[in-house]
Amino acid sequence: MAWKFVVGGISHETNSFSPIETRLAHFKERGYLCGEGLLNGFAGTKTPMGGFIDFARETSSKLIPTVSASAVPSGLVTKEAYLQLKKELLDGIEKAGKIDGVLLALHGAMVAQGFPDVEGDILSSVRQIVGPKVVVVSPLDFHATVTDLMVEEADGLFGYNTYPHVDGYERALEAGRFAVKMLRKEISPTSVVVRPPLSPGVVPARTGWGPIKELMDQAFELEKQPGVINVSVYGGFVYSDVYDAGMALLVTTDGDSRRARDLAQTMAEKAWRLRHSFVTDMKKPMDAVKYALRQTRGPIVLADVADNTGGGASGDGTELLRALMEQKAQEAVVVTIPDKEAVERAFSLGVGGKFDGMLGGKFDDLHGDPVHVKGTVKILSDGIFVHKGPMSTGIKSSMGRAAVIRCGGIEIIVNERRFQPIDPEAARSLGIDPASKKIVVVKSSVHYRASYEPIAREIIEVDGPGLSSPNLSRFEFKNIRRPIFPIDDDSQIGDPFPRV
Ligand SMILES: [Zn+2]
User: Fold this and answer.
1) How far does residue 135's CA lie from ligand 1's centre (Å)?
2) Residue 500 has what pLDDT?
3) How far apart are CA 87 and CA 82, in angstroms?
4) Residue 199 C-alpha to ligand 1 middle, in angstroms?
5) Predicted confidence band at 485 (pLDDT cuts at 50, 70, 90)?
6) How far is the CA of 393 from the centre of ligand 1 (A)?
7) CA–CA distance, 50 with 58 (Å, rounded to integer)
8) 350 C-alpha to ligand 1 centroid (Å)
Protein backbone atom coordinates (compact mmCIF):
# COMPACT_ATOMS: atom_id res chain seq x y z
CA MET A 1 0.00 0.00 0.00
CA ALA A 2 1.26 3.45 -0.85
CA TRP A 3 1.45 5.72 2.19
CA LYS A 4 1.03 9.45 2.05
CA PHE A 5 3.38 11.58 4.16
CA VAL A 6 3.86 15.28 4.61
CA VAL A 7 7.52 16.26 4.97
CA GLY A 8 9.01 19.45 6.40
CA GLY A 9 11.29 20.89 9.01
CA ILE A 10 12.35 23.97 10.91
CA SER A 11 15.77 23.77 12.44
CA HIS A 12 18.01 25.99 14.52
CA GLU A 13 20.48 25.51 17.34
CA THR A 14 19.93 28.58 19.49
CA ASN A 15 22.65 30.04 21.68
CA SER A 16 20.79 32.27 24.14
CA PHE A 17 23.99 34.13 24.95
CA SER A 18 24.52 35.40 21.41
CA PRO A 19 23.48 38.99 20.75
CA ILE A 20 22.91 38.07 17.06
CA GLU A 21 19.11 37.90 16.68
CA THR A 22 18.01 35.18 14.25
CA ARG A 23 15.62 36.61 11.68
CA LEU A 24 13.76 35.21 8.67
CA ALA A 25 16.53 36.54 6.42
CA HIS A 26 19.04 34.26 8.18
CA PHE A 27 16.92 31.21 7.33
CA LYS A 28 16.50 32.37 3.75
CA GLU A 29 20.25 32.92 3.42
CA ARG A 30 21.30 29.54 4.81
CA GLY A 31 18.65 27.06 3.81
CA TYR A 32 15.05 27.73 2.88
CA LEU A 33 13.28 25.47 0.42
CA CYS A 34 9.63 24.80 -0.13
CA GLY A 35 7.36 22.75 -2.35
CA GLU A 36 9.04 20.76 -5.10
CA GLY A 37 12.21 22.80 -4.51
CA LEU A 38 12.58 21.00 -1.18
CA LEU A 39 12.50 17.57 -2.82
CA ASN A 40 14.84 18.60 -5.63
CA GLY A 41 17.24 20.37 -3.26
CA PHE A 42 17.72 17.43 -0.91
CA ALA A 43 17.45 14.45 -3.28
CA GLY A 44 20.66 12.43 -3.15
CA THR A 45 22.06 14.21 -0.06
CA LYS A 46 23.07 12.44 3.15
CA THR A 47 20.85 14.65 5.28
CA PRO A 48 17.65 13.95 7.24
CA MET A 49 15.58 15.27 4.30
CA GLY A 50 17.63 13.13 1.92
CA GLY A 51 16.82 10.19 4.21
CA PHE A 52 13.09 10.88 4.03
CA ILE A 53 13.24 11.12 0.24
CA ASP A 54 15.01 7.75 -0.05
CA PHE A 55 12.64 6.21 2.50
CA ALA A 56 9.68 7.30 0.38
CA ARG A 57 11.28 5.77 -2.69
CA GLU A 58 11.98 2.45 -0.93
CA THR A 59 8.38 2.18 0.32
CA SER A 60 6.74 3.75 -2.78
CA SER A 61 5.23 6.37 -0.47
CA LYS A 62 4.01 9.74 -1.61
CA LEU A 63 5.80 12.74 -0.11
CA ILE A 64 4.05 16.09 0.11
CA PRO A 65 6.66 18.78 0.68
CA THR A 66 5.95 21.82 2.86
CA VAL A 67 8.92 23.88 4.03
CA SER A 68 12.47 23.20 5.14
CA ALA A 69 14.22 26.06 6.90
CA SER A 70 17.47 26.15 8.82
CA ALA A 71 19.75 28.99 9.89
CA VAL A 72 23.33 29.09 11.16
CA PRO A 73 23.30 28.80 14.97
CA SER A 74 23.00 32.21 16.60
CA GLY A 75 20.87 34.03 19.19
CA LEU A 76 17.13 33.78 19.87
CA VAL A 77 14.92 33.36 16.81
CA THR A 78 12.56 36.31 16.49
CA LYS A 79 8.92 35.61 17.26
CA GLU A 80 8.00 36.91 13.82
CA ALA A 81 10.38 34.53 12.01
CA TYR A 82 9.28 31.52 14.04
CA LEU A 83 5.55 32.18 13.62
CA GLN A 84 5.97 32.71 9.88
CA LEU A 85 7.86 29.42 9.38
CA LYS A 86 5.46 27.54 11.63
CA LYS A 87 2.53 28.91 9.64
CA GLU A 88 4.07 27.71 6.37
CA LEU A 89 4.58 24.24 7.83
CA LEU A 90 1.09 23.99 9.34
CA ASP A 91 -0.61 25.42 6.23
CA GLY A 92 1.18 22.79 4.15
CA ILE A 93 -0.07 20.03 6.45
CA GLU A 94 -3.63 21.36 6.36
CA LYS A 95 -3.62 21.63 2.58
CA ALA A 96 -2.37 18.07 2.18
CA GLY A 97 -5.77 16.67 3.13
CA LYS A 98 -5.93 13.09 4.32
CA ILE A 99 -2.46 11.79 5.18
CA ASP A 100 -0.90 8.82 6.98
CA GLY A 101 2.02 10.57 8.62
CA VAL A 102 4.15 13.65 9.12
CA LEU A 103 7.92 13.33 8.70
CA LEU A 104 9.63 16.25 10.39
CA ALA A 105 13.31 17.18 10.42
CA LEU A 106 13.61 19.13 13.67
CA HIS A 107 16.75 20.05 15.53
CA GLY A 108 15.56 20.06 19.15
CA ALA A 109 17.47 23.05 20.55
CA MET A 110 15.61 25.91 18.91
CA VAL A 111 14.49 28.78 21.12
CA ALA A 112 12.37 31.67 19.87
CA GLN A 113 11.27 34.84 21.64
CA GLY A 114 8.44 33.70 23.94
CA PHE A 115 8.91 30.03 22.91
CA PRO A 116 11.51 28.26 25.08
CA ASP A 117 10.42 24.86 23.71
CA VAL A 118 9.96 25.45 19.97
CA GLU A 119 9.96 21.78 19.01
CA GLY A 120 7.36 21.01 21.69
CA ASP A 121 5.25 23.81 20.27
CA ILE A 122 5.68 22.58 16.67
CA LEU A 123 4.86 18.98 17.56
CA SER A 124 1.76 19.89 19.57
CA SER A 125 0.54 22.25 16.82
CA VAL A 126 1.01 19.50 14.23
CA ARG A 127 -0.75 17.01 16.47
CA GLN A 128 -3.68 19.37 16.89
CA ILE A 129 -4.17 19.44 13.12
CA VAL A 130 -3.63 15.77 12.29
CA GLY A 131 -5.18 14.14 15.37
CA PRO A 132 -3.98 11.08 17.27
CA LYS A 133 -4.05 8.52 14.44
CA VAL A 134 -1.64 10.15 12.01
CA VAL A 135 1.98 9.14 12.76
CA VAL A 136 4.31 12.03 13.63
CA VAL A 137 8.05 11.36 13.76
CA SER A 138 11.32 13.28 13.67
CA PRO A 139 15.03 12.63 13.92
CA LEU A 140 16.62 14.98 16.45
CA ASP A 141 20.07 16.47 16.71
CA PHE A 142 22.38 15.04 19.37
CA HIS A 143 22.24 18.54 20.92
CA ALA A 144 18.47 18.57 21.30
CA THR A 145 16.74 19.67 24.49
CA VAL A 146 14.25 16.80 24.84
CA THR A 147 11.18 17.97 26.75
CA ASP A 148 8.26 15.97 28.09
CA LEU A 149 5.94 17.82 25.70
CA MET A 150 7.97 16.72 22.65
CA VAL A 151 7.91 13.09 23.77
CA GLU A 152 4.19 13.26 24.46
CA GLU A 153 3.21 14.80 21.13
CA ALA A 154 5.48 12.79 18.79
CA ASP A 155 5.10 9.08 18.12
CA GLY A 156 8.83 8.62 17.71
CA LEU A 157 11.95 10.76 18.10
CA PHE A 158 15.31 9.47 16.94
CA GLY A 159 18.45 11.12 18.26
CA TYR A 160 21.61 11.22 16.17
CA ASN A 161 24.08 8.61 17.39
CA THR A 162 27.03 10.71 16.32
CA TYR A 163 28.82 13.94 17.10
CA PRO A 164 30.26 14.95 14.59
CA HIS A 165 26.81 14.35 13.14
CA VAL A 166 27.18 11.91 10.28
CA ASP A 167 23.98 9.89 10.70
CA GLY A 168 21.12 12.35 10.17
CA TYR A 169 20.29 10.47 6.96
CA GLU A 170 20.18 7.10 8.71
CA ARG A 171 18.06 8.43 11.61
CA ALA A 172 15.52 9.79 9.11
CA LEU A 173 15.36 6.39 7.41
CA GLU A 174 14.86 4.83 10.86
CA ALA A 175 12.05 7.30 11.64
CA GLY A 176 10.32 6.59 8.32
CA ARG A 177 10.53 2.81 8.72
CA PHE A 178 9.23 3.13 12.28
CA ALA A 179 6.26 5.14 10.96
CA VAL A 180 5.42 2.39 8.47
CA LYS A 181 5.56 -0.27 11.20
CA MET A 182 3.13 1.81 13.24
CA LEU A 183 0.81 2.23 10.27
CA ARG A 184 0.86 -1.53 9.71
CA LYS A 185 0.07 -1.93 13.41
CA GLU A 186 3.19 -4.07 13.86
CA ILE A 187 4.29 -1.98 16.85
CA SER A 188 2.61 0.10 19.53
CA PRO A 189 5.43 2.32 20.79
CA THR A 190 5.74 4.12 24.09
CA SER A 191 8.58 6.49 25.05
CA VAL A 192 10.05 7.83 28.27
CA VAL A 193 12.69 10.54 28.71
CA VAL A 194 14.84 11.00 31.81
CA ARG A 195 17.01 14.08 32.23
CA PRO A 196 19.81 13.76 34.80
CA PRO A 197 21.02 17.03 36.40
CA LEU A 198 23.90 17.13 33.94
CA SER A 199 24.67 19.59 31.15
CA PRO A 200 28.24 19.43 29.84
CA GLY A 201 29.79 21.79 27.29
CA VAL A 202 29.74 20.47 23.74
CA VAL A 203 33.46 19.76 23.34
CA PRO A 204 33.86 16.91 25.87
CA ALA A 205 30.54 15.36 24.78
CA ARG A 206 31.59 13.94 21.45
CA THR A 207 30.56 10.43 20.58
CA GLY A 208 33.81 8.79 19.52
CA TRP A 209 35.44 9.22 22.87
CA GLY A 210 35.02 8.95 26.66
CA PRO A 211 31.73 9.05 28.55
CA ILE A 212 29.41 9.57 25.58
CA LYS A 213 31.01 6.68 23.72
CA GLU A 214 30.42 4.50 26.76
CA LEU A 215 26.76 5.56 26.92
CA MET A 216 26.24 5.12 23.17
CA ASP A 217 27.77 1.62 23.29
CA GLN A 218 25.33 0.69 26.04
CA ALA A 219 22.43 2.19 24.06
CA PHE A 220 23.36 0.04 21.03
CA GLU A 221 23.44 -3.07 23.25
CA LEU A 222 20.01 -2.27 24.69
CA GLU A 223 18.58 -1.73 21.22
CA LYS A 224 19.39 -5.38 20.43
CA GLN A 225 16.94 -6.56 23.11
CA PRO A 226 13.55 -7.67 21.83
CA GLY A 227 10.88 -5.07 22.45
CA VAL A 228 13.36 -2.18 22.63
CA ILE A 229 12.83 0.06 19.61
CA ASN A 230 15.20 2.96 20.20
CA VAL A 231 17.56 4.20 22.88
CA SER A 232 18.84 7.73 22.28
CA VAL A 233 21.56 9.52 24.21
CA TYR A 234 21.38 13.31 23.93
CA GLY A 235 24.30 15.50 24.94
CA GLY A 236 21.99 18.54 25.00
CA PHE A 237 23.00 22.11 24.31
CA VAL A 238 23.91 23.93 27.48
CA TYR A 239 24.15 27.31 25.69
CA SER A 240 20.40 27.29 24.97
CA ASP A 241 19.81 28.22 28.61
CA VAL A 242 16.25 26.90 28.87
CA TYR A 243 14.87 25.01 31.87
CA ASP A 244 15.26 21.51 30.39
CA ALA A 245 18.63 22.06 28.61
CA GLY A 246 21.17 19.32 29.14
CA MET A 247 21.57 15.61 28.75
CA ALA A 248 18.55 13.41 28.11
CA LEU A 249 18.08 9.67 27.78
CA LEU A 250 15.10 8.71 25.68
CA VAL A 251 13.90 5.13 25.39
CA THR A 252 11.16 3.82 23.12
CA THR A 253 9.82 0.30 23.65
CA ASP A 254 7.05 -1.68 22.05
CA GLY A 255 4.19 -0.97 24.43
CA ASP A 256 6.08 -1.44 27.70
CA SER A 257 6.28 1.96 29.38
CA ARG A 258 7.62 0.59 32.63
CA ARG A 259 10.55 -0.99 30.83
CA ALA A 260 11.14 2.22 28.89
CA ARG A 261 11.27 4.12 32.19
CA ASP A 262 13.61 1.58 33.82
CA LEU A 263 16.03 1.64 30.92
CA ALA A 264 16.03 5.44 30.61
CA GLN A 265 16.58 5.71 34.35
CA THR A 266 19.45 3.21 34.27
CA MET A 267 21.09 5.14 31.43
CA ALA A 268 20.61 8.46 33.27
CA GLU A 269 22.23 7.03 36.38
CA LYS A 270 25.17 5.82 34.31
CA ALA A 271 25.54 9.29 32.73
CA TRP A 272 25.53 10.79 36.21
CA ARG A 273 28.24 8.40 37.42
CA LEU A 274 30.39 9.40 34.44
CA ARG A 275 29.95 13.17 35.05
CA HIS A 276 33.54 13.81 36.11
CA SER A 277 34.90 12.37 32.87
CA PHE A 278 33.33 15.15 30.76
CA VAL A 279 36.62 17.03 30.76
CA THR A 280 38.59 18.86 28.08
CA ASP A 281 42.29 19.48 28.04
CA MET A 282 42.77 22.87 26.39
CA LYS A 283 45.65 25.26 25.77
CA LYS A 284 45.50 29.06 25.82
CA PRO A 285 45.85 30.60 22.31
CA MET A 286 49.47 31.78 22.81
CA ASP A 287 50.55 28.43 24.26
CA ALA A 288 48.76 26.49 21.54
CA VAL A 289 50.62 28.40 18.80
CA LYS A 290 53.93 28.09 20.65
CA TYR A 291 53.39 24.34 20.89
CA ALA A 292 52.44 24.02 17.22
CA LEU A 293 55.53 25.95 16.12
CA ARG A 294 57.79 23.58 18.06
CA GLN A 295 56.51 20.57 16.11
CA THR A 296 58.58 19.52 13.12
CA ARG A 297 55.69 18.31 11.01
CA GLY A 298 52.09 19.31 10.43
CA PRO A 299 49.32 19.76 10.05
CA ILE A 300 48.74 20.73 13.66
CA VAL A 301 45.08 21.63 13.79
CA LEU A 302 44.30 24.33 16.34
CA ALA A 303 40.58 24.03 16.96
CA ASP A 304 39.08 27.31 18.10
CA VAL A 305 36.38 25.38 19.93
CA ALA A 306 34.91 28.41 21.71
CA ASP A 307 34.40 30.39 18.50
CA ASN A 308 32.25 27.88 16.69
CA THR A 309 29.47 29.44 14.61
CA GLY A 310 27.88 25.97 14.75
CA GLY A 311 27.42 26.55 18.47
CA GLY A 312 26.21 30.13 18.05
CA ALA A 313 29.55 31.94 18.47
CA SER A 314 30.32 34.80 16.09
CA GLY A 315 33.11 32.97 14.25
CA ASP A 316 35.13 36.15 13.86
CA GLY A 317 37.22 35.65 16.99
CA THR A 318 40.75 36.93 16.66
CA GLU A 319 42.81 35.53 19.53
CA LEU A 320 44.42 32.70 17.56
CA LEU A 321 45.17 34.97 14.59
CA ARG A 322 46.77 37.46 16.96
CA ALA A 323 48.89 34.68 18.49
CA LEU A 324 49.98 33.45 15.04
CA MET A 325 50.99 36.97 14.01
CA GLU A 326 52.84 37.75 17.22
CA GLN A 327 54.81 34.53 16.97
CA LYS A 328 55.44 35.01 13.23
CA ALA A 329 54.01 31.63 12.29
CA GLN A 330 54.84 30.18 8.86
CA GLU A 331 52.80 27.84 6.64
CA ALA A 332 49.69 28.65 8.64
CA VAL A 333 46.10 29.11 7.54
CA VAL A 334 43.09 30.50 9.40
CA VAL A 335 39.77 28.96 8.33
CA THR A 336 37.90 31.36 8.52
CA ILE A 337 37.10 34.88 9.74
CA PRO A 338 33.71 36.15 8.59
CA ASP A 339 34.13 39.89 7.96
CA LYS A 340 32.01 41.52 5.24
CA GLU A 341 33.90 44.78 5.40
CA ALA A 342 37.27 43.08 4.85
CA VAL A 343 35.88 41.03 1.94
CA GLU A 344 34.50 44.19 0.35
CA ARG A 345 37.89 45.84 0.67
CA ALA A 346 39.73 42.79 -0.72
CA PHE A 347 37.42 42.75 -3.75
CA SER A 348 37.91 46.43 -4.40
CA LEU A 349 41.69 45.98 -4.16
CA GLY A 350 41.71 42.95 -6.47
CA VAL A 351 44.20 40.07 -6.53
CA GLY A 352 47.70 41.36 -5.72
CA GLY A 353 46.30 44.41 -3.91
CA LYS A 354 47.84 45.50 -0.62
CA PHE A 355 45.39 44.99 2.24
CA ASP A 356 45.80 47.19 5.29
CA GLY A 357 42.92 47.12 7.74
CA MET A 358 41.28 45.80 10.87
CA LEU A 359 40.06 42.21 10.74
CA GLY A 360 37.51 40.25 12.80
CA GLY A 361 36.15 40.88 16.28
CA LYS A 362 33.31 42.98 14.90
CA PHE A 363 30.08 41.06 15.63
CA ASP A 364 30.29 41.58 19.39
CA ASP A 365 32.83 42.15 22.15
CA LEU A 366 32.93 38.53 23.26
CA HIS A 367 35.44 37.06 20.80
CA GLY A 368 38.54 39.28 20.96
CA ASP A 369 39.29 42.70 19.43
CA PRO A 370 39.82 43.41 15.73
CA VAL A 371 43.40 42.72 14.58
CA HIS A 372 45.41 45.03 12.34
CA VAL A 373 46.41 43.04 9.27
CA LYS A 374 48.78 44.17 6.52
CA GLY A 375 48.99 41.72 3.68
CA THR A 376 48.37 40.86 0.06
CA VAL A 377 45.13 39.70 -1.51
CA LYS A 378 45.96 36.30 -3.04
CA ILE A 379 42.62 34.90 -4.13
CA LEU A 380 39.04 36.09 -4.58
CA SER A 381 36.12 33.69 -4.84
CA ASP A 382 32.33 33.39 -4.85
CA GLY A 383 32.75 31.14 -1.79
CA ILE A 384 30.65 28.28 -3.10
CA PHE A 385 31.81 24.72 -2.46
CA VAL A 386 30.41 21.20 -2.13
CA HIS A 387 30.85 19.15 1.07
CA LYS A 388 32.82 16.00 0.23
CA GLY A 389 33.56 14.79 3.76
CA PRO A 390 31.32 12.50 5.83
CA MET A 391 29.13 15.37 7.10
CA SER A 392 26.55 17.11 4.92
CA THR A 393 27.93 15.05 2.03
CA GLY A 394 26.83 16.42 -1.31
CA ILE A 395 25.44 19.66 0.10
CA LYS A 396 26.43 22.79 -1.78
CA SER A 397 27.37 25.52 0.67
CA SER A 398 28.10 29.18 0.38
CA MET A 399 30.35 31.05 2.75
CA GLY A 400 29.48 34.24 0.88
CA ARG A 401 32.15 35.91 -1.21
CA ALA A 402 35.58 35.02 0.12
CA ALA A 403 39.17 36.22 -0.10
CA VAL A 404 42.55 34.90 0.96
CA ILE A 405 44.80 37.51 2.50
CA ARG A 406 48.44 36.57 2.94
CA CYS A 407 50.16 38.20 5.88
CA GLY A 408 53.76 36.96 6.26
CA GLY A 409 53.54 33.19 6.56
CA ILE A 410 49.87 33.22 7.45
CA GLU A 411 47.01 32.87 4.99
CA ILE A 412 43.71 34.18 6.33
CA ILE A 413 40.43 33.22 4.71
CA VAL A 414 37.92 36.02 5.13
CA ASN A 415 34.33 35.52 4.03
CA GLU A 416 30.97 37.23 4.13
CA ARG A 417 28.74 34.77 5.99
CA ARG A 418 29.00 33.11 9.36
CA PHE A 419 29.38 29.40 8.68
CA GLN A 420 31.15 26.46 10.30
CA PRO A 421 34.08 25.32 8.14
CA ILE A 422 33.78 21.62 8.98
CA ASP A 423 35.01 20.44 5.61
CA PRO A 424 38.52 21.12 4.22
CA GLU A 425 36.75 21.65 0.88
CA ALA A 426 35.97 25.18 2.09
CA ALA A 427 39.72 25.96 2.03
CA ARG A 428 40.40 23.82 -1.05
CA SER A 429 37.84 25.82 -3.02
CA LEU A 430 40.16 28.77 -2.43
CA GLY A 431 43.27 26.93 -3.58
CA ILE A 432 44.51 26.07 -0.08
CA ASP A 433 45.01 22.44 0.89
CA PRO A 434 44.97 22.24 4.70
CA ALA A 435 46.79 18.88 4.51
CA SER A 436 49.89 20.66 3.20
CA LYS A 437 50.00 23.30 5.96
CA LYS A 438 51.99 23.27 9.19
CA ILE A 439 49.27 24.96 11.26
CA VAL A 440 45.55 25.03 10.51
CA VAL A 441 43.19 27.11 12.65
CA VAL A 442 39.63 25.82 12.35
CA LYS A 443 36.60 27.53 13.88
CA SER A 444 34.69 24.49 15.08
CA SER A 445 34.05 22.59 18.32
CA VAL A 446 33.78 18.97 17.17
CA HIS A 447 32.28 18.65 13.65
CA TYR A 448 35.63 19.41 11.95
CA ARG A 449 36.95 16.13 13.35
CA ALA A 450 35.00 14.06 10.81
CA SER A 451 37.07 15.52 7.95
CA TYR A 452 40.17 16.86 9.71
CA GLU A 453 41.13 13.87 11.90
CA PRO A 454 42.25 11.83 8.86
CA ILE A 455 44.60 14.61 7.69
CA ALA A 456 45.73 16.12 11.02
CA ARG A 457 49.00 15.08 12.58
CA GLU A 458 47.69 16.40 15.87
CA ILE A 459 44.63 18.28 17.10
CA ILE A 460 44.88 20.87 19.88
CA GLU A 461 41.72 22.29 21.43
CA VAL A 462 42.17 25.94 22.30
CA ASP A 463 40.65 27.75 25.30
CA GLY A 464 39.89 31.10 23.69
CA PRO A 465 37.04 33.46 24.40
CA GLY A 466 33.71 32.63 22.78
CA LEU A 467 30.11 31.59 23.08
CA SER A 468 30.72 27.89 22.50
CA SER A 469 33.38 27.57 25.20
CA PRO A 470 33.35 24.35 27.21
CA ASN A 471 34.53 26.51 30.10
CA LEU A 472 31.04 27.12 31.55
CA SER A 473 32.28 29.53 34.20
CA ARG A 474 32.40 32.09 31.37
CA PHE A 475 28.56 32.17 31.22
CA GLU A 476 25.81 33.55 33.43
CA PHE A 477 22.93 31.08 33.27
CA LYS A 478 19.43 32.36 34.01
CA ASN A 479 16.89 29.70 33.00
CA ILE A 480 18.42 26.25 33.17
CA ARG A 481 17.14 24.24 36.17
CA ARG A 482 19.48 24.33 39.14
CA PRO A 483 21.40 22.75 40.61
CA ILE A 484 22.97 21.12 37.56
CA PHE A 485 26.45 19.72 36.97
CA PRO A 486 29.01 21.09 36.08
CA ILE A 487 27.54 24.60 36.53
CA ASP A 488 26.98 23.56 40.16
CA ASP A 489 29.17 21.10 41.96
CA ASP A 490 28.45 17.77 43.62
CA SER A 491 27.93 19.28 47.07
CA GLN A 492 25.13 21.52 45.77
CA ILE A 493 23.41 18.69 43.93
CA GLY A 494 23.65 15.79 46.35
CA ASP A 495 22.51 12.39 45.11
CA PRO A 496 19.93 12.81 42.34
CA PHE A 497 19.22 9.08 42.23
CA PRO A 498 18.89 7.97 45.85
CA ARG A 499 18.20 4.29 46.48
CA VAL A 500 15.09 3.76 48.55
ZN1 LIG B 1 24.33 19.38 16.93
Assistant:
1) 25
2) 57
3) 8
4) 14
5) very high
6) 16
7) 12
8) 37
| Closest C-alpha among 313, 317, 310 to residue 336 | 317
Q: Separation of 117 CA from ligand 1 center, angstroms?
A: 16
Distance 12 CA to ligand 1 centre (A): 9
How close is the Cα of 293 to the center of ligand 1, in Å?
A: 32
Cα-to-centroid distance, 67 and ligand 1 (Å): 21
Q: Quote the radius of gyration of the chain (alpha carbons, Å).
A: 23
Q: Give distance in angstroms: CA of 374 to centre of ligand 1.
A: 36
**Residues in CB range of 418: below 8 A, 6 or more apart:** 20, 72, 74, 309, 314, 315, 316, 338, 363
Q: What is the mean pLDDT of residues 479-486?
A: 97
How many residues appear in the chain?
500
Centroid of ligand 1 to alpha carbon of 233 (angstroms): 13
pLDDT attached to residue 357: 96
Q: Where are the beta strands (DSSP E) in 12-128?
A: 31-34, 62-70, 101-104
pLDDT at 394: 87
CA of 22 to the centre of ligand 1 (A): 17
CA of 384 to the centre of ligand 1 (A): 23
Determine the distance separating the centroid of ligand 1 and the alpha carbon of 331, expressed in angstroms: 31
Taking residues 411-440, what's their average pLDDT? 96
Alpha carbon distance 472, 495 (integer Å): 22
Span from the CA of 311 to the centroid of ligand 1 (angstroms): 8
Task: Note the pLDDT of residue 115.
Answer: 98
Distance 378 CA to ligand 1 centre (A): 34
* Position 481 pLDDT exceeds 90: yes
Q: How confident is the model at residue 263 (pLDDT cuts 50, 70, 90)?
A: very high
Beta bridge partners of 372: 358
pLDDT in tens, 31-59: 899 999 999 999 999 999 999 999 999 99
Phi and psi torsions of 133, nearest 5°: -90, -25
Q: Using CA atoms, how far apart are residues 33 and 9, in angstroms rounded to an integer?
A: 10
**Cβ 422 vs Cβ 393: under 8 Å:** no
Q: Ligand 1 centroid to 32 CA: how many Å?
A: 19
- pLDDT(424) > 90: yes
Whole-number Å distance, alpha carbon 141 to ligand 1 midpoint, is 5
User: Interior CA angle at 495 toward 494 and 496, to 5°?
Assistant: 110
pLDDT tier for residue 240 given thresholds of 50, 70 and 90: very high
* Mean pLDDT for the chain overall: 96
CA–centroid distance, residue 143 to ligand 1 (Å): 5
**What torsion do the CA atoms of 473, 236, 115, 149 make, to the nearest 10 degrees?**
-140
Distance in angstroms (rounded) separating the CA atoms of residues 207 and 226? 25
Q: Is the pLDDT of residue 23 over 90?
A: yes
What's residue 4's pLDDT? 98
